[in-house]
Amino acid sequence: MRKRISLLAAGALVALGPATTPAHAADPVFTLAGPAGIGLRPHPGQSGEPQKTSVEFRIVNDSAKTFDRQSTFTIDLSGLKGVADVALAKEKGADCTLTAAAVTCKRWALWTGDSAVVKLDLSAAKDSKAGASADLTVTGAAEGATFRSATTKVRVGGPDLVLERARLKADQKPGDRQNLSIIFANEGTDPVNGVVLEMRTTHGIDLVEQYDNCSYSDDTGSGRPWTTGWTTVQCLLEGEYEPGAVYGVDGPLTLKAAPHAFIDGLTYAVYAAGDQPKAAKNRAPAAARTKLAAAKQAPKAAARSAQQPADLDPWDNIQEFDFATRNTADLVATGVSLKGKAGETVTADFGFRNDGPAWVAYLRSHEAVARTDIVIPAGAKVTKVPAGCTGVNADGTHRDQTLGAPRYFCSTGHVVGEKETFTYPFQLKIEKVVADAKGAITVGQWTPEGTTGQRWDPNHANDKAAFVINAKDTGPAPTATPTTSATPAPTGSATPTATATPSASATGTGVTPNGGLASTGSSAQAIALGGAVLLAVGGGLFLAFRRKAGGHA
């Protein structure tokens, strides 16, 4: 029987972190790390065979130099007897040996940063009982160093939240609305006391409603360009969620395509309270708040324990979806006119602007959205080039020397905002005065020879503009190219085929939303995408995306 729940009850979102012990002041201190807890499927597992669960321990050397002495790491396995069977994983990490009593690993040096110590595969022992548990602690030892140990609680059984994939429409137009239906089950052996529903949308998708028991945050951190531009909503659903029961959020969760929507994505997930990923700094919600009523609330739980058992399979807690909105974006090259005498050095900003209405984000591939092709007029020599720009020969072929090239290619990153301007600052020396010396600035899609008009750009006439030095008239006018009006809607996969180098020097003067969407994924399949993964760290999960075989929205 499906139980209906609401988003009404407000509550704090809890995150627990591991404790550490102090080290001797004279020694360098290295920290061992691993998940706070893992759950094992009761023997013999759903398929009739013991199901393995992996646990990885890592070492953190946050000093500025390598520790060049031998270190030994030990994991006492005596507490796992009758609870779990242990094997070394194929990608075990350091030089390790396994006996019935312990795992011992040796490292001949500890490089700076984070590195693996050992990865173990665990499965419930044949005669183990649901609820049986043991601590798995890794310790380290080396002459002249102190190590902070790490402990992972291993438990047979536990909750298993499984999220159903919502039926959403991928193809849409700006302003379209559709309801996000959230249905999930607990397919584990233990109840869950409190569930956090997390919804993350890219820049072009808005979540219309706001609720008292939800927190709202925007990820705009400049240091995380692959995730900037996402909005995260986390809602605490209080109550006890029983094994074998199915639950549905009762009330509207409306997704709306913004006027600038184009290639966008959504992820939604459920976590046991305390296991949800840490969100960015919360922003104040809108003043108007809507409260949802429940057709039937789940039984209210007693006081929640300090630490719930780990989810047996966190991979099926998450679903994703891609949206392809029928929209266009007009890239407009910016003309430049300079004056100067022979021997003078002048500065010029080359680039383009996006007149919208859409933002453009290649969220899967992270490939450059646009290339600016700059042809230098006669009599001038480039003496300073911004990062992200490459000098080429006049025909667009490779050139070893960057300075003094007759032509330059400059590329954006994987996102161009709906009202964003990109500028590339150059310095040029006027070696010889040539009256009305003309070059050109062209923006478009990468090609081996230069650029071509983007298929989603409705006006290719303004893709090219003049670059003039010592013009005879008042200034440059755009040089017309054949105009086309083709505005095809993006496909569901929305994956470009061009390859270009993102420019670190592009200066946005408008909104610069960025995203990190990877392929959609079935909750039962493995997750594999560039730059984003699910990591179980200290009892929490970092949300990312998965690639689905043959199922792009």
Protein topology:
Elements: E1 2-5, E2 29-33, E3 37-40, E4 53-61, E5 71-76, E6 84-93, E7 95-98, E8 102-107, E9 113-124, E10 133-141, E11 146-148, E12 150-156, E13 161-163, E14 171-172, E15 177-179, E16 183-186, E17 192-201, E18 205-207, E19 214-219, E20 230-241, E21 246-249, E22 254-257, E23 263-272, E24 318-325, E25 329-333, E26 336-338, E27 345-357, E28 360-361, E29 371-375, E30 380-384, E31 389-392, E32 407-411, E33 415-416, E34 421-430, E35 437-447, E36 450-452, E37 464-469, E38 535-537, E39 540-542
Parallel strand pairs: 1-21, 2-11, 3-12, 14-24, 26-37
Antiparallel strand pairs: 2-4, 4-9, 5-8, 5-10, 6-9, 7-8, 10-12, 13-16, 15-22, 16-21, 17-20, 17-23, 18-22, 19-20, 23-24, 25-27, 27-34, 28-33, 29-32, 29-35, 30-34, 31-32, 35-36, 35-37, 38-39
Supply the key terms.
41% strand; mainly beta; 6-stranded mixed β-sheet; 39 strands; disordered C terminus; 553 residues; 7-stranded mixed β-sheet; flat; single chain
Brief sketch in words of this structure:
The chain is mainly β and 553 residues long. The protein has strands spanning 2-5, 29-33, 37-40, 53-61, 71-76, 84-93, 95-98, 102-107, 113-124, 133-141, 146-148, 150-156, 161-163, 171-172, 177-179, 183-186, 192-201, 205-207, 214-219, 230-241, 246-249, 254-257, 263-272, 318-325, 329-333, 336-338, 345-357, 360-361, 371-375, 380-384, 389-392, 407-411, 415-416, 421-430, 437-447, 450-452, 464-469, 535-537, 540-542.
